[in-house]
Automatic annotation (TrEMBL):
<feature type="transmembrane region" description="Helical">
    <location>
        <begin position="419"/>
        <end position="437"/>
    </location>
</feature>
<dbReference type="InterPro" id="IPR050469">
    <property type="entry name" value="Diguanylate_Cyclase"/>
</dbReference>
<feature type="transmembrane region" description="Helical">
    <location>
        <begin position="63"/>
        <end position="83"/>
    </location>
</feature>
<dbReference type="InterPro" id="IPR000160">
    <property type="entry name" value="GGDEF_dom"/>
</dbReference>
<feature type="transmembrane region" description="Helical">
    <location>
        <begin position="159"/>
        <end position="177"/>
    </location>
</feature>
<feature type="transmembrane region" description="Helical">
    <location>
        <begin position="443"/>
        <end position="462"/>
    </location>
</feature>
<feature type="transmembrane region" description="Helical">
    <location>
        <begin position="95"/>
        <end position="114"/>
    </location>
</feature>
<dbReference type="GO" id="GO:0043709">
    <property type="term" value="P:cell adhesion involved in single-species biofilm formation"/>
</dbReference>
<feature type="transmembrane region" description="Helical">
    <location>
        <begin position="218"/>
        <end position="239"/>
    </location>
</feature>
<dbReference type="InterPro" id="IPR029787">
    <property type="entry name" value="Nucleotide_cyclase"/>
</dbReference>
<protein>
    <submittedName>
        <fullName>Diguanylate cyclase (GGDEF) domain-containing protein</fullName>
    </submittedName>
</protein>
<dbReference type="GO" id="GO:0005886">
    <property type="term" value="C:plasma membrane"/>
</dbReference>
<feature type="transmembrane region" description="Helical">
    <location>
        <begin position="120"/>
        <end position="147"/>
    </location>
</feature>
<keyword id="KW-0812">Transmembrane</keyword>
<dbReference type="GO" id="GO:0052621">
    <property type="term" value="F:diguanylate cyclase activity"/>
</dbReference>
<dbReference type="InterPro" id="IPR031621">
    <property type="entry name" value="HisKA_7TM"/>
</dbReference>
<dbReference type="Pfam" id="PF00990">
    <property type="entry name" value="GGDEF"/>
</dbReference>
Length: 633
């Protein structure tokens, strides 16, 4: 049976349709046939967005939280929406505003606490808001209210046809009334009513869509892409008109939005020392970028100097956060001397910048240079400016060597993170040197150095490093530092529920009781720690490693590896374990038995079933002479 469209594919179709409509405003004359055709295609996005919104409403656990989320994204999209349309749509709001009103209407209708009279009053107020401020008055509310109770495709089709016909008639009638009242109406205006026929184009797409399944989740790509596409399209307009400074400004604004999104992703994760350092770095980077944006858009010297103060406060704080970040990530404590230098240079910079009018430490002289559409600050560099950027270069070189060392002595996800950080630092260092060496009055590459830092750093650290996410004593094994049985079961069960292929290794030390009896429990603990360190070194941190209890350990690898790879893993583990024992002067004979069970991602399997399969394979390995591995057949 041929599968239909997923919700993600439907969202992409809606985004492309919206993009088609928005392009019609900048590529063709408004009343040309090509522009009308593009706007007709664009209208198919509205029924799709309404249906996806209703689908999400029915599955959402916290409607209030999602309404607040819509409110936030509406606020973020107001500025991009209006800079794109400028005076073409005066006082009208964007599509997210329409979705928000639709959500409010559904929430009011479903409320059990509100009396009927209050429901009528509130819905009437929302309808008035839609008529006054929406670019598509009442249409979203009508679609969403009807789709809320449409449980058949045929009824949904009838709804789309009715609303399309009503929109066409309403537009024609309103234009006739305006014309008869003496208002000017263009001869071509009647063609706008034809655009609503585009609603019908959504019918075949919705027919192919398999919605309202329990496992289907609306991803929300539309909310993220909607404000960004206006900035990109506006940049396209500026490119074609040769206004590159505006492009530079919008790229900077886009960078601020991305930093906000990275901060949100980091806050959602369970906080660790590395994540906390990353949040500090992102917060100050955001302060720097906001200060620089204010500097770019200011015209007076006083405002520019105030913006520079904000900018430099953010930059000094970001460097401190960056040093802390690298210290935590590399597990290689930075010398106290570096922190002392950092504190002294930061204090000198803050003092110099906030007493700019009283001394010539940071800038020897400052002024304003005016261009056609903007103004920039021009300055002569002072001794503290030179000291600060020399200090930045020193910190970056130091952390570059730390990254290289970390990359050389790690594997798995830590190695990939180190490579990403190395690229980030390399890009930042090159751009920083260009800022120091080159004096471009109109474009400052320093802001792109900061942006490359935070983007690549946050991207690398926001990976699923599960060891870094173990935060509480309840989740951590106190002896080895690995996750304990409860946390391991919880995380693996989540993977199995999502039908992610995986391989479970169950590892048990042979004759561990003899080690405790002959050498004491202190030595036994050292052996357990040596095995835990061996597991971390061999498996990296992109797989789950746990101490289940006693001398029993488990690994869950997020892939369906073949027998040859399993053999290599067990051999590497055995070699690494004996090497760690030798380094700790534990001259005793201790071998490992391993049981392996695989899940191919087909069908359902619980943690208990997979664990039992690995346990049976381990039992077979023990009974076959120990110091070997066996598969569950």
């Amino acid at each position: 049976m041929k599968k239909g469209l997923t919700t993600a594919q439907l969202e992409v179709a809606a985004i492309l349709a919206m993009l088609c409509e928005h392009l019609s405003w900048i590529t063709f004359n408004f009343y040309t046939p090509q522009a009308h055709f593009m706007r007709i295609v664009g209208k198919l996005a509205i029924p799709i967005i309404c249906y996806l919104s209703v689908s999400f409403y029915e599955k959402a656990k916290n409607i209030t939280k999602y309404i607040l989320c819509l409110l936030l994204f509406w606020g973020l999209s107001i500025y991009p929406y209006h800079i794109f349309y400028t005076a073409k749509i005066t006082g009208k709001q964007n599509i997210i505003f329409d979705v928000l009103l639709g959500f409010l209407v559904m929430a009011i209708l479903d409320s059990l606490k509100l009396k009927k009279i209050w429901k009528v009053i509130l819905i009437a107020a929302i309808l008035i808001l839609s008529i006054c401020f929406s670019n598509n008055p009442l249409i979203f509310i009508l679609f969403m209210a009807d789709f809320r109770h449409s449980h058949s495709y045929n009824r949904m089709v009838r709804t789309i046809i009715k609303i399309a016909a009503a929109a066409v008639l309403f537009t024609l009638i309103s234009q006739s009334i305006c014309q008869s009242a003496g208002a000017y109406v263009s001869r071509e205006a009647w063609k706008e009513s034809v655009n609503y026929i585009g609603f019908l184009l959504a019918i075949p797409l919705l027919k192919k869509c398999q919605l309202r399944k329990k496992e289907e989740v609306v991803k929300g790509y539309f909310l993220i892409v909607y404000p960004i596409q206006f900035l990109l399209l506006k940049n396209f307009v500026h490119i074609t008109s040769g206004n590159f400074y505006r492009i530079y400004l919008y790229i900077h604004l886009l960078g601020i939005l991305i930093v906000l999104r990275l901060g949100y992703s980091t806050l959602k994760a369970k906080l660790s020392h590395v994540q906390t350092a990353n949040i500090v770095m992102l917060s100050f980077a955001l302060l720097f970028m906001l200060g620089y944006y204010f500097q770019l858009t200011a015209f007076s010297l006083q405002v520019m100097i105030a913006a520079v103060k904000i900018e430099m406060t953010g930059l000094t704080g970001m460097i401190i956060g960056f040093t802390w970040f690298m210290n935590e990530f590399c597990n290689n404590p930075i010398s106290n001397f570096v922190y002392i230098v950092e504190g002294m240079v930061t204090s000198a910079c803050i003092y110099a910048i906030y007493t700019l009018g009283q001394n010539k430490l940071f800038y020897k002289a400052v002024g304003v240079k005016h261009f056609k559409e903007h103004s920039i600050i021009v300055s002569v560099r002072g001794p503290v400016w030179i000291l600060f950027f020399a200090y930045m270069a020193m910190i970056m070189l130091l952390t570059l060597f730390m990254c290289l060392y970390k990359m050389k002595h790690s594997d798995g996800i830590e190695r990939r993170q180190s490579v990403t950080l190395l690229i980030a630092e390399g890009a930042g260092f090159v751009l920083l040197m260009l800022r120091i060496i080159l004096r471009n009055e109109e474009y400052d590459v320093g802001t792109f150095a900061v942006f490359s830092f935070v983007l690549l750093f946050s991207f690398s650290i926001c990976q699923n490093d599960y060891l870094d996410n173990i935060q509480t004593e309840r989740e951590r094994d106190p002896l080895t530092g690995l996750c304990n049985r409860g946390y391991f079961i919880e995380q693996v069960q989540k993977k199995l529920e999502k039908k992610i292929k995986g391989t479970m290794f169950m590892i048990d030390m042979d004759n561990f009781k003899m080690v405790n009896d002959n050498y004491g429990h202190g030595t036994g603990d050292k052996v357990l720690i040596a095995l835990a360190d061996s597991l971390k070194q061999v498996m990296g941190s992109d797989n789950f490693v746990s101490r289940i209890g006693g001398d029993e350990f488990c690994i869950f690898i997020h892939s369906h590896i073949d027998e040859n790879e399993m053999k290599k893993i067990t051999e590497r583990l055995e070699v690494k374990f004996h090497k760690n024992l030798e380094q700790r002067n534990l001259n005793l004979l201790s071998t490992l038995s391993v049981g392996i069970a695989r899940y191919d991602g087909k069908g359902k399997i619980s943690f208990e079933e997979l664990y039992e399969n690995a346990d049976k394979a381990l039992y077979l390995a023990k009974n076959s002479g120990k110091s070997q591995y066996k598969f569950y057949a």
